[in-house]
């Protein structure tokens, strides 16, 4: 059956699986500061990316420095928020909230890249945001968070939403860099910015990893780098509309891993909320792809009349 899949689809399926592995590693390391995990992850990623770029003969630092730094900075901040959410919320809840990122990217794109939002898209956005509210009402908080403070779950949910918002800014920076820089250069700037930020934070809040922590940190770095590379290849090999929806398989991985390894359970409202988030994001992707296809099919004169 896998032989019938295109190379791009196979790469994206592998990417979602590797990202799920990264999520599980971060969750397993909940006792370490999030920025410390990012520090070790960034070291692994920056070395692997630099070696790959040198082998390809591509200048690692690129040419569009302002945009690359913007992408790296927003990506680093988004990653910090996401890791905090992963460590302190049920795995599936953190992943669900992160799925708001494409919606924020679309809304912010109205001003940043001058891409309009079509009428029905606002309805789909409303579905997804309503789903997040249901997840918050029906999800069960992770035990160590619930014991720490009654309102901790809501706090980290808010941090997750902020992370998704900043991810939207990062995605728009990537859009502006499309065709200007090699994809691996864009990936390289992520750890290039996050490493010094994490290093400074570690000076004030360091907790030495012990025993199997080192294996989990190494696995986190390997999963992340593999996921980034396979995702980049998937977008290079296949149409965006064909491979992007496969990202949502991560929800099912998160539910399964959360249940098997972290004993996470949810109420009916939370499952309904997750379904609404996926429905809203999926409908938005389908509707946007359909609108793009229709616009591309218009003859030149018809396009001028529409404009």
Automatic annotation (TrEMBL):
<keyword id="KW-0472">Membrane</keyword>
<feature type="transmembrane region" description="Helical">
    <location>
        <begin position="120"/>
        <end position="142"/>
    </location>
</feature>
<keyword id="KW-0812">Transmembrane</keyword>
<feature type="transmembrane region" description="Helical">
    <location>
        <begin position="91"/>
        <end position="113"/>
    </location>
</feature>
<dbReference type="Pfam" id="PF00892">
    <property type="entry name" value="EamA"/>
</dbReference>
<feature type="transmembrane region" description="Helical">
    <location>
        <begin position="34"/>
        <end position="53"/>
    </location>
</feature>
<feature type="transmembrane region" description="Helical">
    <location>
        <begin position="186"/>
        <end position="208"/>
    </location>
</feature>
<keyword id="KW-1133">Transmembrane helix</keyword>
<protein>
    <submittedName>
        <fullName>Membrane protein</fullName>
    </submittedName>
</protein>
<feature type="domain" description="EamA">
    <location>
        <begin position="8"/>
        <end position="135"/>
    </location>
</feature>
<feature type="domain" description="EamA">
    <location>
        <begin position="159"/>
        <end position="283"/>
    </location>
</feature>
<feature type="transmembrane region" description="Helical">
    <location>
        <begin position="154"/>
        <end position="174"/>
    </location>
</feature>
<feature type="transmembrane region" description="Helical">
    <location>
        <begin position="269"/>
        <end position="289"/>
    </location>
</feature>
<dbReference type="InterPro" id="IPR000620">
    <property type="entry name" value="EamA_dom"/>
</dbReference>
<feature type="transmembrane region" description="Helical">
    <location>
        <begin position="214"/>
        <end position="231"/>
    </location>
</feature>
<feature type="transmembrane region" description="Helical">
    <location>
        <begin position="243"/>
        <end position="263"/>
    </location>
</feature>
<feature type="transmembrane region" description="Helical">
    <location>
        <begin position="65"/>
        <end position="85"/>
    </location>
</feature>
<dbReference type="InterPro" id="IPR037185">
    <property type="entry name" value="EmrE-like"/>
</dbReference>
């Amino acid at each position: 059956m896998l032989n019938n899949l295109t190379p791009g689809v196979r790469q994206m399926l592998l990417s979602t699986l590797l990202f799920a592995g990264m999520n599980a590693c971060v969750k397993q390391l909940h006792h370490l500061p999030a920025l410390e995990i990012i520090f070790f992850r960034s070291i692994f990623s920056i070395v692997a990316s630099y070696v790959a770029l040198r082998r390809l003969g591509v200048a690692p630092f690129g040419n569009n420095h302002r945009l690359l730094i913007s992408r790296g900075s927003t990506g680093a901040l988004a990653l910090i928020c996401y890791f905090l959410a992963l460590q302190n919320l049920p795995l599936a809840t953190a992943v669900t909230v992160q799925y708001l990122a494409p919606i924020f990217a679309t809304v912010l794109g109205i001003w940043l890249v001058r891409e309009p939002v079509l009428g029905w898209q606002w309805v789909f956005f409303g579905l997804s945001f309503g789903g997040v509210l249901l997840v918050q009402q029906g999800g069960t908080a992770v035990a160590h968070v619930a014991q720490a403070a009654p309102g901790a779950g809501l706090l980290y949910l808010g941090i997750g939403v902020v992370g998704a918002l900043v991810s939207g800014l990062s995605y728009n920076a990537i859009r502006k860099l499309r065709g200007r820089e090699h994809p691996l250069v864009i990936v390289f700037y992520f750890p290039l910015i996050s490493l010094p930020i994490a290093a400074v934070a570690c000076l004030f809040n360091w907790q030495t990893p012990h025993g199997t922590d080192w294996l989990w940190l190494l696995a986190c770095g390997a999963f992340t780098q593999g996921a980034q590379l396979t995702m980049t290849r998937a977008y290079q090999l296949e149409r965006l509309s064909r491979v992007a929806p496969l990202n949502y398989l991560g929800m099912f991985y998160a539910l399964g891993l959360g249940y098997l390894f972290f004993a996470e359970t949810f109420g009916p409202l939370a499952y309904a909320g997750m379904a609404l988030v996926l429905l809203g994001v999926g409908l938005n992707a389908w509707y946007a792809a359909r609108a793009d296809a229709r616009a591309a099919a218009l003859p030149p004169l018809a396009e001028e009349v529409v404009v």
